[in-house]
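FORM 7B - TANDEM STRUCTURE REPORT

SECTION 1: FIRST PROTEIN
SEQUENCE AND TOKENS:
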Amino acid sequence: MQSLLTDFRINELVSSMERCHIAIVGDVMLDRYYRGTASRLSPEAPVPVVEIVEESEHLGGGANVAYNLSSLGVQASIFGVVGDDRSGEHLRLLLEGLGIESSGLIVQRGRTTTVKTRVIADGQHIVRADQETKERIGSQVQKNLLASLNEKIEQLDGLILQDYNKGVFSPEVIEQILSLALAHNIPTFVDPKFENFFAFKASTLFKPNRKETEDALQCRLTTLDDKLKAAHELKSRLRSRYVVLTLGSDGMILVGSDDDPVLVPTRSIQVADISGAGDTVIAILAAASSVGATMREAVELANHAAGIVCEQVGTVPVTRQMLVTMGSNVHA
């Protein structure tokens, strides 16, 4: 497929992103990393002993989407729920340190902030341990979250709904958020998970991956025809203006309102870690389309940006410089 993105167009889009304001509502989490070396097995069990040399904490889930947007120069606001614990405090401090507006983070007493702890030895991912509460947030917390979003809605150029099935979203909350955005003519970009998959009706863009789509439609996406049929079925059932089906190494499929489906192949990359790639894609789709990119342009940009992120170890946001440099590499 011939790329529509010239170096000039990429620079034009990236330069415009600092003028838009996008909010993310959904599940937020903290990514904790322990990195070190492993040269021997434990005498207690057949597992490696990792000698830790570095500890770090990063934004995860919807917060990582906000990080990606902020790294692109976009004004980002986050709306979600954390627990009354130290991890929740750390998450808020990380957001504030990056200039991400976090007054929409609601604290629910007794809830555990989602933390994913990864141990990496000699560049290899050894284990991940999760701490989280998956129960739906309380009714008063729902009201506070929606009220906080309502206060900001008129300032927004786009709204991302980021679902990880960690309890923020329910069909009722989803309906209220999408109705609020529609009433204010704010485009909505949905990154779904299985539990609420078909509750996200009438969004501007719906972005599932292959596994989520296979689980939701109870089918296997093997051939190109399978994938095209699935994307069209999702668009019809969800009444979305666009569906972007992400397919990992097979690229992405864009199905829109008027044009023929577009298959955007992935570029050749050396995959180091896929963590956060989906967050990067939804951030780029929202940011690019909010500053005037056609959806095909936005999908091409997101597809290449995801490749950049997958070449890095850990949850790494795409930056403005990465996208500008990417333009030169794509057309070299």
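SECTION 2: SECOND PROTEIN
SEQUENCE AND TOKENS:
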Amino acid sequence: MSPQPPDLARLVRALLDEWDLVVDGASPAGPSAIVPVLTADGPAALKVGPPDEARHEALALQHWHGRGAARLLRADPRRGALLLERLSTRDLTGEWDVEACELVAGLYGRLHVPAPPQLARLSTYAAGWAADLAGSRSGALPRRIVEQAAHLARAFAADPATDGVMMHGDLHYGNVLAGDRQPWSVISPRPISGDPHAEVTPLLSHRWDEVAASGDVRGTLRRRFHAVIDTAGLDEERARDWVIVRETAATLTAGGRGTERASIAVAVIKAVQE
């Protein structure tokens, strides 16, 4: 296994013993311990991380039952432990970006199921973003974009359609892995009771180096955006409005990366509006 903090390493050893698991390879680097293991039934992966994140991840994976997502084999959310189906390390970052967007959007129909009541609501986040944006004095973004995002966030906060569907919450190219049981499975959900149209945004600003190097930032972003909404059958206007809200809110919470993040946000917002 890769080196881990002492407390985490002790917990992993305890779980290996309690769940009768055998280490079966090196752990990839990351904020959580992810240990390839063998069970009595075959290969799996032991993931140990913050208990609150594990609790929500387990909840989402239980509701998906392996449909479009990694299968959950066992869980102890109190200790932040999940035993998961073993997947490949190959994600969508190596695929052509339009095709990757289509693959992700093709999973939406299986992932966007009725949300369990335990999840936080997107409308609550929207209300908070509206308040933050209305009171913002940041000069990182043009004022008209901030004002537009605040107006849209207020409208979403009051819209019943903003809640009710379980979103992955952080669905981008790196959180979709190849596998044997099904071609692609999502991992690491941060589930929220929300609106499928708000799921699009992370796909637009990830792999930004490729966008910048394309020589056609606007065209690349528009192709990504339309690949997702067309494949998933989403309403273009509503998806666009969520992009404006989420990109603007993300910029205001970017801290020291605010200026860099703002330039990305402006490019994304202009592309989906034009």
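SECTION 3: OBSERVATIONS ON SECOND PROTEIN
The mean pLDDT is 93.
The first strand starts at residue 22 and ends at 23.

SECTION 4: SIGNATURE
Preparer initials: ____
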